[in-house]
Write a structure and sequence with these properties.
The protein is mainly α. It is built from 16 helices and no strands. The two termini are about 20 Å apart.
Amino acid sequence: MRNQSIDTSKGFLLLLVIVGHILQGSFTESLPRYLIYGFHMPMFMAISGFLFSANYFKITTHTWIKKTTSRALLPWVLAVIIFTVYLKFVGYYQQSSPQLIIESLTKPFYHLWFIPAWIAYQAAIRWMEKHQFNIRQFLLASCLISTAAAWLQISGQVLIPTQEIPIIGEILYSLRPQFFLFFVLGYVVKNHPNSLPHVLSKTLQHPIHSIIALGIFTTQFFYTNPLINNAELIKTSINVLVFFYLNLSFLAYGIPIIAANKLPKSPLLHWIGNQSLLIYLWHPMAILFARYTISYKPTPEFYFSSITSTITILVIIYFYDRYRNP
């Protein structure tokens, strides 16, 4: 039987993605955006890793590429083209056509980074399994990669200006390696559970850690220590630690519940999770429509237009799904 809790959790996280995109204002000004962006993508990546079957490394590379292309890459390319054409039309892009096409594929607009990162994470796990790499060493490597990426991302390029090394900036933008660890953990939880540090996973599984981590993370929004303000290294290191503490505790507590199919049933969230790829790819078009036809500022008219346009896109996807699966 299909685990409905997986689709429900994906639906809930994707709903948070939509809300986070509709809400305006920087993370330092909007507490809801700050909280949503603190955990929704790590958890989404962990569930994606959990769904990545161990059988995928047993098939040939050609078969894997074929499956990935038909399932995700072609819809992504279509979305890249349509978003690029629309954004060129409204004046967001100023580049010439050849340059714009290359940049759109190598540095995709806004939310479209997810598919290249998702494919890259799968490729890394396939490489690990095919070469029978030690699981614990791979976990350690993914931890170091994600920690370094999170440190660079959170520091805001203050400590290490990534613009001086363009390749680092491109990788941080397009592949988001700070989330790689969570994808690997989701995969390992399902396929190699004995490779996880037992004491650490059992300790973090207690809900008190999620409560404490969320409290610390929320406190950071309201309070900044003057000492930390004057020491970027300390500030960044603390933020990275809190980020991983929050998400690892959420992961340790949430994944067993999801795996056991114990989440309350919600037909709406289940449907959103089941249609997650289409909804994720296309929902930002509603927000862009509101920005460029109503107002770029967070006015009531903007929010009304964003919400109604988003609902319209969901309705279109619903009937498209009904047409494909009568």
